[in-house]
């Protein structure tokens, strides 16, 4: 990637990482429900899941580029439908963050959330096809960018986690408005994924 593209790449990563998505809201809700310590166990799974998706994306972009590109729009619709399902589930939950914070809050939960997170799959594919592939001379050039990606989303995810832990009492007192806001944020994510 040329140096002139680095600011745009960093901005894309920062905005995508901080905006609400399934993993961010899951960490937020887990911290509200279980506290910081247990939510951090889940975050480790989120980080590893993100790394797996980024590495798979680098492989897919480089070796399956043309074939995978045909199906990217279908994956986008499936991912948006999943996010809308999460939004609906939040609206119906009894406790703030209950829908996003499963009964078991651990490494495997975080890993599963990331491996099924359409937002980061699309994020990784977009980052690699836009900022790495056009300038890559070999697979290793794409892989270098892919290795950096897990330090974007999961690091921003910590902001959501610590925010949820800090505001735990507030959200328990205002569970219905909080659930509504989180559901609307997820619905916005789904719409923005479809429009991008």
Describe the protein's architecture and organization.
With 196 residues, the protein is an all-alpha fold. The chain has one domain (3-195). The chain contains ten helices and no strands. It has helices spanning 6-18, 22-34, 36-63, 65-92, 107-115, 118-132, 139-148, 153-166, 168-173, 175-195. The radius of gyration is 17 Å and the shape is globular. The two termini are 22 Å apart. The relative contact order is 0.23.
* Category by helix and strand content: mainly alpha
Shape: globular
Run of helices and strands: HHHHHHHHHH
* pLDDT < 50 runs, ≥5 residues: 96-103
Report helical residue fraction: over 70%
CA distance, first residue to last residue? 22 Å
Our count of helices gives 10
Q: What is the number of independent domains? A: 1
Q: Could you tell me the mean pLDDT?
A: 77
For the sheet with most strands, the description reads: none
Note the beta-strand portion.
Answer: under 5%
β-strand number: 0
| Radius of gyration, CA atoms, in whole angstroms | 17 Å
